[in-house]
Amino acid sequence: MAYIKEKTIAGRKYFYVTKSVRLPDGKVKTLQKLVKDRRVSPQAFAGWFEEEEKKAFCGWAAKTYPADSVFSAEQIRAAEEMRFGYRKILARLSKPQLKDLFDRFTVNFTYESNAIEGNSLTLKDVAIVLFENASIKGKDLREIYETRNSREVVDLILRRKLKATEADAIRVHKTLVRDMDIPTGYKTVPNYLLGRDVETTPPEKVAGAMGKLFADYEANEGKLHPVQLAARFHGAFEKIHPFEDGNGRVGRFLVNAMLVNNGYPPLIIRKSQRTAYMKCLNDFDRGYARNLERFLLEKYKDTYRKFFEVYAKYLK
Length: 316
Hints:
The chain folds into two domains: 3-64, no CATH class; 93-313, Orthogonal Bundle (Fic-like fold), CATH 1.10.3290. Helix 1 (46-64) crosses helix 2, helix 2 (73-92) packs parallel to helix 11 (289-313) and helix 10 (274-285) runs antiparallel to helix 11. The protein is globular and about 80 Å long. By secondary structure, the protein is mainly α. The protein has eleven helices and three strands, in the order βββααααααααααα. It has helices at 46-64, 73-92, 95-116, 123-131, 141-158, 166-176, 203-220, 226-240, 247-261, 274-285, 289-313, and strands spanning 3-9, 12-22, 28-35. Residues 164-298 form the Fido domain.
């Protein structure tokens, strides 16, 4: 909360409207603006404080995360502005509005993520399955189950109840394939990727590869921008392909868990972007990580602008 602070310098009194903000690393930064006297209302400077707070967050990120050809200083600032904007959007929503926003996200994300893997349910079908607890005539029960189960995972993500850990990755997979007659736990037979020129990790090496993947993620937290780190994790996870089925969906769940847990808005990869997405994963498999990083950064920005920002625009 902003307040008026008085300072005496060389025998003269000065008044500052003052507010303390906590940066992502837990440190507190004090924002101050000189005013003519103590009678001014701190609330009159709400817009100024919001802009200065955003600058402080962006400045912190620019100093904290290394810049490169994809995550340039400009792109890092853009990502942080969206993080800041997302936090402000959530703060202004009532409980019913927040539920509505998250329900809309859940439907859109679930539809697109499942459609990438060939699920034939329409967006309307997905909404019916999720919120009317109904089946769709003529549709495979497996498509119904994976849609229903996805809601439970997305709910955990949005409530920050899902961590970026090996145990939670296994938990996500178990939830996703519930009632679908698909083995849970790590794969016991090799799997092959259609349209991908890469050999996935053999079953006997999956546990070790997954342990290393999560150890590397933990070691790089705070060293790379969270969107960049999530992209690198995603590429490596999909190359391992640790489960018999459901790897793409689990991978996208984990990306959003990483973003949301760090205060960033979750992202959606559209079915219409599948070809570009698969190409970026192929490029990652061949050692070109930048294309996948750039792709997920763009999806992050697109989702914020075209979903969260649009929703906030039409709030009454």
